[in-house]
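Incident log, structure service

09:12 report received: a user says their structure output differs between two submissions of the same chain.
09:20 pulled the input from the user's history:
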Amino acid sequence: FGENPKRVYQDSKIKTRMNIAALLRNLLFKTKEYMEKKENGKDVPFNMQFEAMIPVLKKEMPLKCHAHRSDDILTAIRIGKEFDLDLTLDHVTDGAIIVDKIKESGYPCIVGPAFTHKSKYELKAKSFKTPKVMKENGILFSITTDSPVVPQEYLPICAALSVKEGLSEKDAIEAITLSPAKILKISDRVGSIKVGKDADLILCTSSLLDPQNEIKRVFIDGKPIN
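09:34 re-ran on a clean worker, output below:
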């Protein structure tokens, strides 16, 4: 949603936010129609695009919604509710502005990257304070670097800067470990230290969020590799 598709597809019919929403809604509607015809045993021509979207309609795969501005976030929520989809709200730069609507939707948020310039108008509200607002309102969220926009090795620094803006250290670490695992629906395997989970661990000299922290030992599948 927003400026990215407008910029990339500016020479085609995708020129406005209204068109972007209409095209997505049309795709989902046609996919639903195609899927129902197949399930009812009707002979329909194979359509690769619709086939790719069927797992989204069946909630086997989330719809990943890139949305910075508040109106784009609300559009994503409306479409998600209209078609009863699982989706994630990615970036949610204006999330603090409409936090009540996001909480009401029940959709998880992937916040960031805030460690960049405000390179376009829709990023004017970008802030490391957003994770704290999400936590205070009981919204499941994680922090992202949007790698390679910001290299992924700076994820702990992004979390640390959120702590500087009021998020607790515990919640910041959870936002880059357990919370993303919950959003990805793999928290039964990874994201926290628990018997039976995949045991990939690191031993550090200080807090994971300390920029001077050094990793001294690495364990993969429970076995030391250094």
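09:41 both user submissions now match this output. Likely a transient worker issue. Closing.
09:42 reviewer note: The two ends are 44 Å apart (CA to CA). The chain has two domains: 1-61, 62-193.
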